[in-house]
Amino acid sequence: AQSVTQLDSQVPVFEEAPVELRCNYSSSVSVYLFWYVQYPNQGLQLLLKYLSGSTLVKGINGFEAEFNKSQTSFHLRKPSVHISDTAEYFCAVRPSGNTGKLIFGQGTTLQVKP
Amino acid sequence: DAGVIQSPRHEVTEMGQEVTLRCKPISGHDYLFWYRQTMMRGLELLIYFNNNVPIDDSGMPEDRFSAKMPNASFSTLKIQPSEPRDSAVYFCASSFSLGVGGYTFGSGTRLTVV
Q1: What single-letter DSSP state applies at residue A6?
Q2: Weakest-pLDDT range from A94-103, B7-16, B37-46
């Protein structure tokens, strides 16, 4: 079975500062990894994904994440945040291959302050 | 494509009443998922379908919950009888081939049981 731990429930940051949202996972098999964003009163949107290949993946809105197999982590980063990035961010994992379901972490609320 | 469409957006009902939530997935997607989101438990997968067939309903909390997918373009989640602890946001999502490309989420139905 797989599990996901998002280490911070809330991350406050000032506008234009860098941010890192942390995600660790547990799995006995190889996995695909995802980050989703949820704006208030909306559904989740895919930010980026890691399937294979380069461990640094770039997504929408200037976000990127790095897959670290040895540390079983997939941290999300942005060098300079905007007020509009205020949202909840979810890390998710599922087994690679054509089987299994997507398991979400508990979410991290990013609060960007002016 | 209009995306995943859920209805209603908001539902307020009295305890004991039957509630039906509806979902229209993206055309061509062969997987459909129902999630429930609460502050206490985060995002929980309730059930998912592949080609209209239920594959895993282990997340359905009780027999009061049932889900159907009579055809590729429509699914329902029914709660009968409803209880206050069922109050949550219910999301439907669809994907092609188990979501390697990510899931597409609807905007959710906010259910309040009083």
Answers
A1: E
A2: A94-103
Mean pLDDT (chain B, rounded): 93
Best probe of the B interface among A101, A106, A108, A109, by most B CBs < 10 A, is A101
Best probe of the A interface among B95, B103, B107, by most A CBs < 10 A, is B103
A-B C-beta contacts closer than 8 Å: 46
pLDDT given for residue B1 in this prediction: 64
Query: DSSP E strands: which ranges in chain A?
Result: 3-6, 10-14, 19-21, 23-26, 31-38, 44-50, 56-58, 64-68, 73-78, 87-95, 103-104, 108-113
Return the pLDDT at A31: 87
Per the CB < 8 Å rule, is A98 touching B97? yes
Long-range contacts of A44-50 (CB under 8 A, 24+ apart): A44/A90, A44/B91, A44/B93, A44/B103, A44/B105, A45/B105, A46/B102, A46/B103, A46/B104, A47/A76, A47/A89, A48/A76, A49/B101, A49/B102, A50/A74
What percentage of chain B has pLDDT greater than the value 70? 97
